[in-house]
Amino acid sequence: MQVETATADEWSLWRELRLQALQDAPDAFGSTLADWQGEGDQEQRWRARLESVDYNAISTVHGRGAGMASGLLVNERVELISMWVAHFARGQRVGDALVDSVIRWADEMKRDVVELSVREGNDHAIALYVRHGFHVVGLIDRDDNSGPLERLMAFESGHSRSKMGIIPYKQSSIECSI
């Protein structure tokens, strides 16, 4: 298994993984498969997506696209977004490697806190995040009933915890569904 940073030149593999993710888990993301198909399915748009998000990682297993995750700089924190692992790669630590890559990137960016949101009922994803030291810091209840509750989870590096204790969660305006 390999995890590599995805640049705009890897748009084709990112596209393949993202479309699989949106088809496989439509309730887990803020966008829909329809948003990225048809007229929305253009090379320039895929390249722009990879260029507009601060960090993108792709995992491969035996040369086959196995998963993806992104990190977005938001104020003094990183938001982990667009996390997904292909069915054939589940149980092979691909999710662990992707989460680790975002946490390492956050550390390189001198950010002590990584946040994410995950839909209630996505027990495998929640267990993955807990295994990496994330803890629940709040819930998002959509006023418009547009979907299930989401858990807001955060990871604080040891430096952050020892220096400042638990940092109160401050919700950003960016939707980060996994």
Overall pLDDT confidence: 86
- CA radius of gyration: 16 Å
Poorly predicted sequence stretches spanning 5 or more consecutive residues: 160-178
Q: How far apart are the first and last residues' alpha carbons, in Å? A: 21 Å
Instruction: Let me know the CATH homologous superfamily.
Output: Gcn5-related N-acetyltransferase (GNAT)
CATH top-level class: Alpha Beta
Number of structural units classed as domains: 1
Q: State the CATH topology.
A: Aminopeptidase
Kindly state the percentage of residues in helix.
25-40%
Secondary structure category: alpha+beta
* CATH architecture heading: 3-Layer(aba) Sandwich
Question: How is the quaternary structure best described?
Answer: single chain
- How would you write the strand order of the largest sheet? 1-2-3-4-5-7-6
Name the shape in a single word.
Answer: globular
Total helical segments: 6
Key traits:
Aminopeptidase, alpha+beta, 7-stranded mixed β-sheet, 29% strand, 6 helices, 7 strands, disordered C terminus, 178 residues
Furnish the topology, listing elements before pairings.
Blueprint: E1 2-5, H1 11-24, H2 33-36, H3 43-52, E2 55-61, E3 64-74, E4 77-85, H4 94-108, E5 113-119, H5 123-131, E6 135-140, E7 150-156, H6 158-164
Parallel strand pairs: 4-5
Antiparallel strand pairs: 1-2, 2-3, 3-4, 5-7, 6-7
Helix pairs in contact: 1-3
